[in-house]
Amino acid sequence: MATQWKNDQPIYLQLKEQIMAMIIDGILNEGEALPSVRKVAADYQINPITASKAYAELVDEGLVEKKRGLGMFILKGARKNLLNAEQKKFLEQEWPEIIKRISLLGLDTKQLIEAATGKNKD
Length: 122
Prior knowledge:
Layout: H1 11-24, H2 37-43, H3 48-60, E1 64-67, E2 71-74, H4 78-105, H5 109-117
Antiparallel strand pairs: 1-2
């Protein structure tokens, strides 16, 4: 996880997003325990309430569960749910902007495929 926090977004949201990215990337796996709130707070020099708020949001989104006396654990299906949400976001928000940019630049499918496969023929 990053130790540099951006000023344009609350730290708890940045921490939540980092944990979500680690789940997607397979760094944190389903069934695995998250580090304790105290450990995260100490390691990243943040208030424990901030770390706790990030964890609470992960619970609210159905990605993590709290097991009394044991800690927080990543739920089964969390990675799949995150991937589905990211795919939907990409297709609905990012892809239309990419298509618009491709059109503005006057690129065609052949050029894009050649560039992607390294078969650029000038």
